[in-house]
# Entry
Amino acid sequence: MDFQGQSILSTEQFDRDSLLDLMKEAEMMEEVFKQGGNDILKGKLMAAVFFEPSTRTRFSFETAMLRLGGMVVSNPDMMKNSSIKKNETLWDTGKVLSQMVDVIAMRHPNPGTVAKLAEGSDVPVLNAGDGSNEHPTQGLLDLYTIWKKFGRFDGLKVALVGDLKNSRVLHSDADLLKHFDVEFVLVSPEELALPPKFKDGISFRETENIHEVIGDLDVISCNRLQEERFENPADCQKYRGSFIITTELLKGAKSDLIILNPLPRMEELPTDVDDDPRAKYFEQVHNGVIIRMALLKKVLL
# Structure
């Protein structure tokens, strides 16, 4: 699948072949990174426009562009420091930005808003997270982290653990891995279950108790309670402690299990797990730069 000139707005744009192709492109980008980068995107300019706080995703996009010789303009607080505050539409914002840059990376707290900006843009727009809907590039870097460990996706048993209702990352993980022979275990309180549209096309079982399945798992992809997505943040308090990956729990897990988390982490992932070699969440940060380097190359060249 050719992504040149295309926006990357949803995991739905990917199929099995394009995902495997992207994994191979990412492997080549690993070598580029090790060599300090290159200049294949010299003369290209990316706008990083973020309407919601971000550390890893914004810096990762910017680092990826710079590693490939491109340039970056950035606004980490578009809600306050752009013409959106003067009621400019997202369509107009997209049209305006695209007159100045070659690609746009955008995050927004409301589902579907990145696509609205992309409708006005004359250049590719990369979805850096739209509310509780999707986070395509985080899902892709999760896949790449799995790929680096196992060299495959088929035959793996993957647990999605936590606030499956509101986690755009876990939504994207499910929607991407559905193209492979993956068995999912969905671990969450019933009220925070994975939305039906992300269950479509996957093989899964559901449980509220990860202890029942820990010994069978190859991958744990967990995330924090998405407190900011609750209408009343106080309502999430009753779920605290419902899904914690502890060192005691991990004694019953496979030696080659890997643990993923998009960060920031809260109580779901105690710091003493960091010393476990199966913990890959800080390595994921590096992998995020790699996968975004691969995507930027594909949409711009």
Remarks:
- The longest strand covers residues 45-50.
